[in-house]
Amino acid sequence: MATSLQDITNAWGNWMNKQYNGGGVKFTASTNYSQHSELDDYRQYEVQANQQPIVYDPNAPSPEPGTVSSVHTQFRNNSSIPQTYTYKQEETTEQSFTWSVTEDLSIGIEVSASVEVPTVAELGTKVTTTVSFSASQQFSTDHSQTWSVEQPVTAPPMTILDTTMVIGTQSYNINWNANCLLTGYVAIWFNDKVKLSGSNDSHHLYFVKIEKVFNECKQNNLINIKSSEYAINNSSVSAFSSGTFYGGQGVGVQIQVDEQPVGGPSASLAATSNTYMIPVEEDAVLGVEA
């Protein structure tokens, strides 16, 4: 579990109290000012969380290929001339994707966003789901893919055609990470009025930019902040989450044709054994249903 933003601001607040003899700190607040009525008139300073799109690992392993085959359909040409038949078949595959959050955000509020599948898994219809980055959990989307073909096949004289619809599949396992930009001010309330650097008067309440808070934590070793959890930018702080995208789907269809002479492979006929594939246009996908 990530170091919480509240733990970080509290560690900083305790340090600030010692630096300025503040008589103790009543609270520090960042992303959720509503917890303190003293901040009701200062919500414009509240730290904002802006979730950025997730980034998939460019060095992820290639999709793992597979196949799903339909039942066989047989056409028998007992004549001495070629015959053309219409092969019709329909088959269903599952399109199932899961986003697993393994390293979540701990910034005091829930952060969620719509995510898309990685480019390598894009296929026709756009697939999205909403992911919460604030807890270690899984988010899935499942659909049925219906594939349908209607294809003429020609059988040479005295030949049996054994036809099968073969759907190519892919499975995925890709790591991802995401950046949530934190901008705004950390509020700190001292029990005794203090005068901070740059202030003309003494006050209980001050607002300090979040990147300054993190810089002071880092410079003074106030709390262990892992680089995998947070990063300090010029005018913001990045909070990181990460996880894995996995799942699979059908990606294309072909027709496999096995030719055999009437009477079997050992028959002493003019026809010879042969196997070939017929590609099918992409519109063979009839639809994707939830």
From TrEMBL:
<protein>
    <submittedName>
        <fullName>Cytotoxin Leucocidin</fullName>
    </submittedName>
</protein>
<dbReference type="InterPro" id="IPR053280">
    <property type="entry name" value="Aerolysin-like_pore-former"/>
</dbReference>
<dbReference type="InterPro" id="IPR004991">
    <property type="entry name" value="Aerolysin-like"/>
</dbReference>
<dbReference type="Pfam" id="PF03318">
    <property type="entry name" value="ETX_MTX2"/>
</dbReference>
